[in-house]
Amino acid sequence: MDELTNTAPLVDPACWLPFTANRAFLQQPRLLNRAQGMHYWTPDGRPVLDGTAGLWCVNAGHCRPEISATIARQAAEMDFAPTFEMGHPLVFSLAKRLIQWMPPTLSHVFFTNSGSESADTALKIARACHFNRGEPKRTLFIGREKAYHGVGFGGLSVGGLPRNKEAFLRKPSIACAVSPMSSTSATSA
Fold it and tell me: Could you tell me the keywords of this UniProt record (predicted)?
């Protein structure tokens, strides 16, 4: 049996779903098997309005042919280009276009991979900005009650969903280990 088919078993406890009562879900799974435009469909053919745009990832709608074709063309040329000390011309072109829509005081773009990463990155950029301006004590963030900002530590910390914070936002114990390979031996290898 192909691992990616929609055949039994339909759900498995090996897969944890975020912010979901997983035991209850396993007893009564709510499954989706396709999407088009503004809707998902269940395996038995019922449409479900996607009121959150695929968790804010498909604001233009699901499975639009022109978007799918563009993704396929780009993936055939280059499916990913890291932005750590490298880049692709399209990244710079898109950044320039986005800045034209922004207020003049916002003149930089930092691309991320997800909403959770975006929230964490925005918090870090804000802290770094104050630190670099000589205001390292400006560390307070204000969050809204019932707000959701992703599954990363930063997003959880400013989010307003107490049950999402309970297990994760205790002060962590952090120890940094020194690599057995020094930076000089790593570069000469």
Answer: Aminotransferase, Transferase
In order of 6, 23, 27, 30, 43, the CA distances from 15 in angstroms are 15, 11, 14, 14, 19
Mark the ranges of the chain whose per-residue pLDDT is less than 70: 1-9, 170-176, 182-189
Query: Would you tell me which CATH number, out of the four given (3.40.50.10610, 2.60.120.560, 3.30.70.270, 3.90.1150.10), belongs to the domain 1-79?
Result: 3.90.1150.10
Predicted pLDDT of residue 1: 42
Annotated domain spans of the chain: 1-79, 86-165
Name residue, tokens 């890291």.
Answer: 82
Q: How far apart are CA 92 and CA 94, in angstroms?
A: 5
Question: How do residues 171-184 score in pLDDT, each as one tens digit?
Answer: 666 666 777 775 55
